[in-house]
Amino acid sequence: MSKIATLEVDGQKIELPVITGSENESAVDINKLRDLTGFITLDPGYKNSGSCTSEITFLDGELGILRYRGYSIEDLAEKASFPEVSYLLIFGELPTAQQLAQFDADIKKHTLVNEEMKNIIDGFPKTAHPMGVLSALTSALTAFNPKAVNVENEKEMYEAICKTIAKFLVIATWTYRKTMGYPLNYYDNTKGYVENFMQLMFRLPTGPYAANPIIVNALDKLFILHGDHEQNCSTSTVRMVGSSHAGLFASISAGVSALWGPLHGGANQAVLEMLEEINKDGGDTDKFMAKAKDKNDPFRLMGFGHRVYKNFDPRARIIKKAADEVLNTLGVDDPILAIAKKLEAAALVDEYFVSRKLYPNVDFYSGIIYRALGIPTDMFTVMFAIGRLPGWIAQWKEMRENKEPIGRPRQIYTGHPLREFKSNK
Ligand code: SDX
């Protein structure tokens, strides 16, 4: 028997359907609310509002659960590869060996980026932030692939997916090469996806290059952990832009811009800068904890807190463990790891953080690993974007396949009532 919610407003009582998901989450369906009552709901930041139903990712913020297509993030991080998880997120099932090999081969058909794209990146100053360059280059891909994707045509959709995965990785690394003044590298179709990331980033024409398998393995795991996260800010942006039937590249480009913000994906860079500041300041974590709690101080403990997780972010647990392993294996002794652990330990017993259920999130430890792997700080959010790409594609595809209406929220107007025009000149 389907549940209903009763709402009484302005003396009128209405019944609204309740929908329940496969993990027993419930929502009041307000599709007919305005027609029935003239009222809308108001929820800045959408803290209580669902934008869609989705079969891709499930997370439980209270229990610290994260699953892609029903598989736990712990299992996927330990047992799968990033290309395998990308396939799972986008097509809904883990690939067979043959499907994975075909997916890899089909991606490799599109790994050459149009040479004219170099004219665009040459227009940027070396000092341009990689995320701004990546967003622009992603949007520019439309110029070289102008034909709109017919999402109803499986073959066209599949080709657009392979093209996006192939080219996004190359242009993402070009943003780093540009800041370093290095020549832009080409994808090497004899190597794997994550190994290619390393050679695209670090191979120099002056000598041979071989990626360290420990680093490739650690990055593969990190990309998996960033794969998708239901309706976060950047993914909601990708769905919103795509809902106007804008193209996949344009929608992903918008997602890159949303991810850039320090409250979202940009937090991994902000965490490192915060830890370096604390380290330079003598490592006094208590002083910075006090700043984070001081309402008059804009300082926040970056990498802490989450809109949904009111428990440990399961990804943070895995990344923290990986940070220890990677730094030990590489023989890196980074003082900021100790500072991060000291901050975490202090926050986990501090009333301010405990009462607000502020725990380390995915961004708190990831930057420490990236730094140990030789990734520069202002590339950290580009790393997040590379990991999140399959999630953005999966969510965009689901939104279009579900024929969702164009996103267009309502508002409550609080400005001037009608007034007669009287010039102030
Ligand atoms: C990501 O949504 C996703 O899924 C995102 C993500 C993904 O995979 O896509 O998980 C990736 O974006 C992780 C979050 C990265 N951002 C940061 O680490 C930035 C620092 N954290 C915050 O700014 C904050 O916690 C947010 C933005 C993450 C969440 O903000 P909310 O849900 O809007 O919560 P809020 O700002 O209303 O905070 C509630 C209270 C406030 O105090 P009071 O007004 O109740 O007294 O907690 C305080 C805040 O001041 N607070 C913090 C804090 N985070 C929240 N105080 C100090 N330091 C912090 N980090």
From TrEMBL:
<keyword id="KW-0816">Tricarboxylic acid cycle</keyword>
<comment type="similarity">
    <text>Belongs to the citrate synthase family.</text>
</comment>
<feature type="active site">
    <location>
        <position position="306"/>
    </location>
</feature>
<dbReference type="InterPro" id="IPR002020">
    <property type="entry name" value="Citrate_synthase"/>
</dbReference>
<dbReference type="GO" id="GO:0005737">
    <property type="term" value="C:cytoplasm"/>
</dbReference>
<dbReference type="InterPro" id="IPR019810">
    <property type="entry name" value="Citrate_synthase_AS"/>
</dbReference>
<dbReference type="InterPro" id="IPR010953">
    <property type="entry name" value="Citrate_synthase_typ-I"/>
</dbReference>
<dbReference type="Pfam" id="PF00285">
    <property type="entry name" value="Citrate_synt"/>
</dbReference>
<dbReference type="InterPro" id="IPR016142">
    <property type="entry name" value="Citrate_synth-like_lrg_a-sub"/>
</dbReference>
<keyword id="KW-0012">Acyltransferase</keyword>
<keyword id="KW-0808">Transferase</keyword>
<dbReference type="GO" id="GO:0006099">
    <property type="term" value="P:tricarboxylic acid cycle"/>
</dbReference>
<dbReference type="GO" id="GO:0036440">
    <property type="term" value="F:citrate synthase activity"/>
</dbReference>
<protein>
    <recommendedName>
        <fullName>Citrate synthase</fullName>
    </recommendedName>
</protein>
<comment type="pathway">
    <text>Carbohydrate metabolism; tricarboxylic acid cycle; isocitrate from oxaloacetate: step 1/2.</text>
</comment>
<feature type="active site">
    <location>
        <position position="363"/>
    </location>
</feature>
<dbReference type="InterPro" id="IPR024176">
    <property type="entry name" value="Citrate_synthase_bac-typ"/>
</dbReference>
<dbReference type="InterPro" id="IPR036969">
    <property type="entry name" value="Citrate_synthase_sf"/>
</dbReference>
<dbReference type="InterPro" id="IPR016143">
    <property type="entry name" value="Citrate_synth-like_sm_a-sub"/>
</dbReference>
